[in-house]
Amino acid sequence: MSAQNPVFIPGPTNIPEEIRKACDMPTLDHRSPKFAKVFKPAVAGVRRVLQMEAGEVIVLPSTGTGGWEAAVTNTLSAGDKVLTARFGMFSHRWIDLCQRHGLDVQIIETPWGQGAPLEAIEAALRADSAHEIKAVLATHNETATGVRSDIAGIRRALDAAGHPAMLFVDGVSSIGSMPFDMAGWGVDVAVAGSQKGFMLPAGLAILGVSPKALAAMEHATLPRTFFDFRDMTQAYATGGFPYTPPAGLIAGLAASIEMLEEEGLENVYARHARFAEATRRAVAAWGMRPCAATPELYSDTVTAVVVPEGCNGTDLVQLAASKYGMAFGVGLGEVAGKVFRIGHLGMLTDAMLLSGLAVAEMCMADLGWDVRLGSGVAAAQEFLRTSGNHAIAQAA
């Protein structure tokens, strides 16, 4: 029965039954008007979630990594310079992807646990008087460390430097769970994935593309075929797809957005903030701390918990899976073994969150860590019972 346990990894997330049922559909002719009736509401809904005012929504059969690749291959050429900071595993992986495509990546090395360094980014942009930097890449929510970066601050840095570079944002573990303002922040490409805040199975890369990025597409020479935005936008004009689409996932995306908007996006964001705070209070009661260096950096979707000296976070994750049938996230890269990660995004309720915190405590006790059983759960309970209820509406 362990398959009935909720997961506490930062994606894929728990799937509401209503969305599971929406994905379970008979074969559909994707060149018929019936597909357009499924597809168009999904695209329109993504536009609202991203707070887009112009540009195109692109939905690709892929994951967030494919979304990163689509962002750069559709807008850049080999040898183009891009600017980014490395402060976690997922910012590192985007850098690696760019380098493999022959881009000239200017990297600002930043300690893990910190966010995107706004002053260093602005200084690099000011120093680029010839405007060789074509894009700034930013990870909104660094899943490896539980750090949220200030995307509006990066836009201010670009504007203060008077720099025309595009702004690309990895919002895979934030969009649909934390406030995201594509128009207000001046984002040119936003990348999301189906398996995080949208509560779907993995399989869709979801992108918002600004008019500026669409214009850059006309001069970009990096190879692309499957991910070519031009093919996508031409097919979209008739409500279709340039190749066979994952119709079930797209139907699920439309259902997901309907659920999110029924709850109210502001309530969705408040619920995630509430669960994040309850988790952090549990962590403090355990005598531990988040990996994120300061409170303004705390993520609302995942907390990376720094384990005590002499303990190994991977041991806890493995024990939770083998003994209790519950999934947490291991530490990655520079923080491997030094943290374990509690994902608190997507479909969660107070009771589900408390079950995860309780299992984490049992694992700590089993491993002989210096933690009093019930301490973190009690701290989270006290906060949850007095902070209002924003639990997600469950399917009947």
Quick overview of this protein structure:
With 396 residues, the protein is α/β, with parallel strands linked by helices. 41% of the residues lie in helices and 15% in strands.
Shape by Cα distribution: globular
Put simply, the count of helices is 13
Distance between the termini: 21 Å
Runs in which pLDDT lies below 50 for 5 or more consecutive residues are 390-396
- CATH hierarchy, class of the largest domain: Alpha Beta
Q: What is the count of β-strands?
A: 13
CATH homolog superfamily of the largest domain: Type I PLP-dependent aspartate aminotransferase-like (Major domain)
What's the pLDDT, averaged over the residues?
Answer: 95
Percent of residues in beta strands: 5-15%
CATH topology of the largest domain: Aspartate Aminotransferase, domain 2
Q: How many domains make up the 3D coordinates?
A: 2
Work out the radius of gyration. 21 Å
The CATH level-2 architecture of the largest domain is identified as 3-Layer(aba) Sandwich
Spatial strand sequence of the major β-sheet: 1-9-8-7-4-2-3
Q: Report on the biggest sheet.
A: 7 strands, mixed
Helix content class: 40-55%
| Helix and strand sequence | HHEHEHEHEEEHEEEHHHHEEHEEHH
Describe this structure as you would to a colleague:
- This protein is of the alpha/beta class.
- The chain folds into 2 domains: 2-12 and 264-386, Alpha-Beta Complex (Aspartate Aminotransferase, domain 1); 17-261, Type I PLP-dependent aspartate aminotransferase-like (Major domain) (Aspartate Aminotransferase, domain 2), CATH 3.40.640.
- It has 13 helices and 13 strands.
- The chain has helices at 17-23, 33-50, 64-73, 89-100, 118-127, 151-161, 211-216, 229-236, 247-263, 265-285, 313-324, 350-366, 375-386; strands at 56-61, 81-86, 104-109, 133-139, 141-142, 147-148, 166-170, 189-193, 204-209, 289-290, 302-306, 329-330, 339-343.
- The strands form 3 sheets. The protein has a 7-stranded mixed beta sheet with strand order 1-9-8-7-4-2-3, sandwiched between helices.
- α4 (89-100) links the parallel β2 and β3 (104-109).
- The longest helix is centred in the last third of the chain and has 21 residues, at 265-285.
- The protein is globular, with a radius of gyration of 21 Å.
- It starts with 16 loop residues before the first helix and ends in a 10-residue tail after the last helix.
